[in-house]
Amino acid sequence: MASPSSDLDRERRKCTFNVAELTDIINGGREKTERRQYLESLVLNEPIFNYDDYYFLSREEKYSDAVKKTVRLVQVLKQHNIEDPEDYQTLLKYVLNLNLPIALHNSMFRPTIRDQGTDEQRKKWLPLANDYKIIGTYAQTELGHGTFIRGLETTSTYDPKREEFVLNTPTLTATKWWPGCLGKTSTHAVVMAQLYIKNQCYGIHSFIIQLRSLKDHSPMPGVTVGDIGNKVGLETNDNGFLAMDNVRIPRENMLMRHAQVYPDGTYRKPANSKLVYGTMVLLRATVVSESATNLSKAATIAIRYSCVRRQTEAKPGELEPQIIDYVTQQHKLVPQLATAYAFAWIARYMMSTYHALHADIESGHLGALQELHGISSGLKAFTAEMSVSGIEVCRRACGGHGFSAASGLVSMYKDRLPSCTYEGENTVLYLQTARFLLKCFRQPSITPSSMSYIQVKPLPGARWGVKSPEDLMKPILLVEAFEHRAQRTIKSAAQFLESQISQGLDTSEAMNRSGIEFVRCAKAHCYYFVTRNFFQSTALLKCSKEIKESLLTLGVVFALNGIADNSGEFLEDCFITGTQMEFVRERILYCYKQLRPNLVGLVDAFAFADQSLNSALGAYDGDVYNRLYNWAKRAPLNKTDVHSSYHKYLKPILKSKI
Ligand SMILES: CCCCCCCC/C=C\CCCCCCCCCCC/C=C/C(=O)SCCNC(=O)CCNC(=O)[C@H](O)C(C)(C)COP(=O)(O)OP(=O)(O)OC[C@H]1O[C@@H](n2cnc3c(N)ncnc32)[C@H](O)[C@@H]1OP(=O)(O)O
Ligand SMILES: Cc1cc2nc3c(=O)[nH]c(=O)nc-3n(C[C@H](O)[C@H](O)[C@H](O)COP(=O)(O)OP(=O)(O)OC[C@H]3O[C@@H](n4cnc5c(N)ncnc54)[C@H](O)[C@@H]3O)c2cc1C
After folding, report:
1. What's the 432 CA to ligand 2 centre distance in angstroms?
2. Which residues form the Acyl-CoA oxidase C-alpha1 domain (predicted)?
């Protein structure tokens, strides 16, 4: 058997480009790489951030370990004056492989105060939150309702005499359920509740509630709070429940940047009722980036392992091939790698679009709200769905060892799975994007330039201009195929809806019956959007010819697999012919061959530290078997040669006479 590390060394020697140059591109420039390395150095050398035996811990131990790491992280952040959210996100992405018990504090609590608080409220709460003197969460979802926000039952009733709000959980189903970091960690929460003034309901607004005493962390009077129990994954996180019984807060605790309640109970409504949903939109944009990072990690583990793992001698006595040389294995992993790169590029687009449109909204251009919602909803759903399924493909591609916790892929899959549900269940979000697409289809005036393609009506009888397999290396033709599919499915969804209405159905029933068509067109739009962005962004890169070639080939793999996996949609209107589909399959194989020497280079370029992958299969040196063996020896069950259950249970039957 060849040595695993020599296998990876050989792979690295074959790579045609400079890996460090590609790392800089992925990070967004040399300076960003240096910043990332600096941040990593602050944390990686600390024993407290060691994850070696993490997979052996129980749920409670995992939570407790995460709290310990959180506190040290906060100290490190303070010690080095690290305040930039981007730095924090870098640390989470590349080093701290966990959903920390301050995840919600930083990702939702602080941004909600920043975006929905008045200047005075920001001045009061943000220094406390920034300094971790209080830890907050975002409590919106209830036992009875998550998707339908307008249906939330928690009430906040204004009492003008005392200038206070009174928070109540009027029914069992009104109990807040799921908020991250709520169960055991948070001292405060932004609670979303129905605002009542003089018996009139004004809809959902946000309120800051103190949950726990700052002296001894015990629940405040009227507050019942706890952990919701074990879940599929996210064991480090104390997703919680919260019930409130006449909890009184000062009037100033309603976040009043957009809507106001004056001391006498006069209400001033927000310029747009959806401004209160703003933090969810930010998190949806963040999920795109998280999806990219995690799929990159999974691809790194599975590709390195597949270069080390050898199986099945082709001819007696010959060295067994590396499993990566089986085209079936390439067909599992190369599309995941291509998707990881496509998502890394769209994540950058999503964040910059978020910041640009958010600035527009802040300056009063509320038209940007629906554009941002339309773009971020679909991309969140699309990237979460493909990332989660891609991680599982990577896990299975590692065979038996992929089932071991030591692979790192098991916990990654379990922890990423809920990204298809939280921040808006994926189907629900696709439906939102579809509504926006259909609006644009009907109203050119509201169509943003990034979506102007919707205005071009697909020509009946249009045909794909691909004449040979070589044509499939032309981005323009690939993008054209996805554009055509998106235009056609949007038009078809609009026609379907109209046909339902013309049959006499009311709007909501017609919308419901059109749901499957809506989701279809939203997915088609997202595939188009991501493919177009990948080729546009890659074309603009200033880099070596070899890197550009590899990236373009990855883009071709992403696009061609998208066509092959959804072939029915392209064949349905004869846009693509059977012969062209054969070209597609042929070219996919050709691209795998082109990329084969660079596969390890392409994953090395993500530059994940071993600690962040926490995988016996995916470490940089490829020393898989020693790692698996040493890890197993440390398993709690192996602490003694004879387990206590032998004395308790086994011994009597083993010793009994037959
Ligand atoms: C040094 C340290 C510094 C730290 C600084 C902080 C920076 C931190 C940065 C990064 C940290 C990264 C860490 C990542 C860690 C990740 C951890 C992940 C934890 C996950 C936490 C999860 C939280 C949650 O899940 S919160 C709860 C989320 N809930 C939902 O998403 C509910 C989904 N439902 C909805 O959004 C809506 O109700 C709806 C979309 C289903 C709409 O329903 P509907 O009934 O139709 O609503 P309606 O009110 O009638 O809407 C009418 C029209 O309004 C449109 N619309 C809806 N929503 C929006 C919107 N948001 N914006 C604009 N427009 C909207 C809707 O489309 C309708 O339009 P139309 O014209 O009528 O079609
Ligand atoms: C790990 C995790 C962390 C979370 N963190 C938080 C948090 O920090 N704060 C917080 O407030 N919440 C949090 N949540 C809650 C989360 O946001 C909701 O679970 C999510 O929005 C989905 O809502 P739901 O549970 O009500 O699902 P449901 O809406 O009940 O979905 C069930 C099914 O119904 C379908 N469905 C529902 N409505 C429609 C519709 N209108 N049209 C078509 N189909 C529909 C869905 O597609 C789905 O298939 C978290 C959830 C999880 C799993």
Report:
1. 14
2. 277-438
Segment 340-368, tens digit of pLDDT: 999 999 999 999 999 998 998 888 888 88
Q: Is the pTM of this model over 0.90?
A: yes
The atom number, within ligand 2, closest to the CA of 146 reads 26
Distance CA 505, CA 471 (A): 46
Q: Is the CB of 138 under 6 A from ligand 1?
A: yes
Quote the pLDDT of residue 2: 65
Q: Is 444 exposed, middle or buried (0-12, 13-18, 19+ CB in 10 A)?
A: exposed
Q: Categorise residue 135: left if φ over 0, alpha if ψ from -120 to 50, beta otherwise.
A: beta
User: Domain map of the chain by residue range?
Assistant: 133-270, 434-450+472-598
Alpha carbon of 238 to ligand 2 centroid (Å): 17
Q: Is the pLDDT of residue 97 over 80?
A: no
pLDDT at 555 over 70: yes
Candidates 3.40.190.10, 1.20.140.10, 3.40.50.2000, 1.20.1740.10; CATH matching 434-450+472-598: 1.20.140.10
For the question of residue 392 being annotated catalytic, the response is no
Beta carbons of 472 and 583 less than 8 angstroms apart: yes
| Spacing, Cα 112 to ligand 1 middle (Å) | 12
What is the interface pTM, i.e. ipTM, of the complex?
Answer: 0.97
Tell whether ligand 1 has an atom less than 6 A from the beta carbon of residue 327. Answer: no
Helices first, then strands: H and E counts in the chain: 24, 11
133-270 topology per CATH: Butyryl-CoA Dehydrogenase, subunit A; domain 2 (2.40.110)
Q: How far apart are CA 382 and CA 302, in angstroms?
A: 22
Catalytic residue among 40, 423, 480, 569: 423
